[in-house]
Amino acid sequence: MNKPVTLDIEAIMKQLPHRYPFLLVDRVLECIPGERITALKNVTFNEPYFQGHFPHRPVMPGVIVIEALAQAAGILAFRTVGVFPDEKTRFFFVAIDRARFRKPVEPGDQIILKATLARALKGIWKFRALAEVGGVEVASAEIMLAPEAKESAKKGAAQ
After folding, report:
1. pLDDT at residue 157 tops 50
2. What kind and span of H or E run contains 132?
3. Which among 35, 115, 131, 149 counts the fewest CB atoms within 10 Å?
4. How far apart are CA 107 and CA 118, in angstroms?
5. 6 and 29 in contact (C-beta within 8 Å)?
6. Is 56 a catalytic residue?
7. Do 71 and 90 contact (CB within 8 A), yes or no?
């Protein structure tokens, strides 16, 4: 069994290529490589999208909640294979299925992001992901990630 790890923001920034304003994971509460991750995102009124979504009632866009889940899943993928992202090694968000939005996320909320590795087959990683606020589900989805394939892209272009 893999030992659970926690990550602060500095460790997360080493594990993900994202930066402000698009780094959407503030802390990893528990990560068991090859199995699951639990992370959190603190939602503040200062988030850039709240200015226009919506001025009279700020609501975090659902696609941003899904992106936060994908970033948590990306951390799990990187921790599972034991690598850090660089110009040759990145995971890309390649598919989303069964996305559901149950409740709005508002400034002041703390989203708990959970992702479980469902399978890794032929370079495609599939995760079951769930976002909760105060123990209540706000969103869920099946997310697929794949490593960047620069070498295969170059070979295809040369033929």
Report:
1. no
2. strand 124-133
3. 149
4. 31
5. yes
6. no
7. no
Number of H helices, E strands in the chain: 3, 7
As a whole-number percent, the residues of the chain with pLDDT over 70 amount to: 92
Tokens 């690598």, residue located: 83
- Write down the residue that tokens 């951390």 correspond to: 75
5-158 in CATH: which number?
3.10.129.10
How long, in residues, is the chain?
Answer: 159
Determine which one of 27, 34, 35, 53 is catalytic: 53
* Burial tier of 121 (Cβ tally within 10 Å: 0-12, 13-18, 19+): exposed
10-69 residue pLDDT tens: 999 999 999 999 999 999 999 999 999 999 999 999 999 999 999 899 999 999 999 999
pLDDT of 29 reads 98
> Which residue matches tokens 């799990």?
76
Phi-psi region of 14 (alpha: psi -120 to 50; beta: other; left: phi over 0): alpha
Query: Which is it for the CA torsion 32, 34, 36, 38, positive or negative?
Result: positive
Residue extents of the structural domains in the chain:
5-158
